[in-house]
Design goal:
The complex is a heterodimer of chains A (about 110) and B (about 110). Chain A has no helices and 11 strands. By secondary structure, chain A is mainly beta. In chain A, the strands form 2 sheets. In chain A, strands 2, 4, 5, 6, 9, 10 and 11 form a 7-stranded mixed beta sheet that branches. Chain B is an all-beta fold. Chain B is built from no helices and 10 strands. Chain B has a 5-stranded antiparallel beta sheet with strand order 1-3-8-7-6, with no helix packed on it. A 5-stranded mixed beta sheet of chain B has the order 2-10-9-4-5, with no helix packed on it. In chain B, strand 6 and strand 7 form a beta hairpin. Chain B is globular and about 40 Å long. Classes of the chains: A mainly beta (about 110), B mainly beta (about 110). The interface between A and B is medium-sized, with 22 and 22 residues.
């Protein structure tokens, strides 16, 4: 149980385009999901908390207009990187909370050319 | 901002060796401590969630202890196997169900 999928697993896009990443809880419902980013040789850093039916809460320094989060159902949250630039290239990973545990997806590697 | 430190950064052991790693975190404003195992190309796997000072949890050959007063947790692996090779992450959270603050991880490589 407690499986989280993420799609796509990797994506290459041109600078200026937008990229959408999906995070799904497959066998449980999650009121709260989280989005993290990991730069090379660094820790996972929380970007935002996604709450079903309400606006996401962004961490300090994360641009909400650049990283659009939608949590329209109890099993799906999406992260859209708008007008992506090379500095947005990173590893993005989501988690979904069930009770006290966050269950993670496998992550998405984004490369912006 | 929580300062979470994990040591060692990496560890190479022989199959059958027992090993342990440390996670240090500020003891104030603490709610829970999470341990994850992260194998390459897979999702991080939740190992333990610990909240009480003195907590000890066990899952197979892996166990963990928690000292909230001094701000540290130990993860132990008994009789390491090659399949234990992974990055082990700890993440304290200062409030319920929110804001995991990850350490940089300990990379474990077990040689057969």
């Amino acid at each position: 149980g407690a499986v989280v999928s993420q799609h796509p697993s990797w994506v290459i896009c041109k600078s200026g385009t937008s990229v959408k990443i999906e995070c799904r809880s497959l066998d449980f419902q999650a009121t709260t999901m989280f989005w993290y980013r990991q730069f090379p040789k660094q820790s996972l850093m929380l970007m935002a908390t996604s709450n079903e039916g309400s606006k996401a809460t962004y961490e300090q320094g994360v641009e909400k207009d650049k990283f659009l989060i939608n949590h329209a159902s109890l099993t799906l949250s999406t992260l859209t990187v708008t007008s992506a630039h090379p500095e947005d290239s990173s590893f993005y990973i989501c988690s979904a909370q069930e009770e006290e545990t966050q269950y993670f997806g496998p992550g998405t590697r984004l490369l912006v050319l | 901002i929580l300062n979470v430190e994990q040591s060692p950064q990496s560890l190479h052991v022989q199959e059958g060796d027992s090993t342990n790693f440390t996670c240090s975190f500020p003891s104030s404003n603490f709610y829970a401590l999470h341990w994850y195992r992260w194998e390459t190309a897979k999702s991080p796997e939740a190992l333990f969630v610990m909240t009480l000072n003195g907590d000890e949890k066990k899952k197979g050959r892996i166990s963990a202890t928690l000292n909230t007063k001094e701000g540290y947790s130990y993860l132990y692996i008994k009789g390491s196997q090659p399949e234990d090779s992974a990055t082990y992450l700890c993440a304290p959270t200062p409030e319920y169900g929110n804001k995991l603050v990850f350490g940089a991880g300990t990379i474990l490589r077990v040689k057969s």
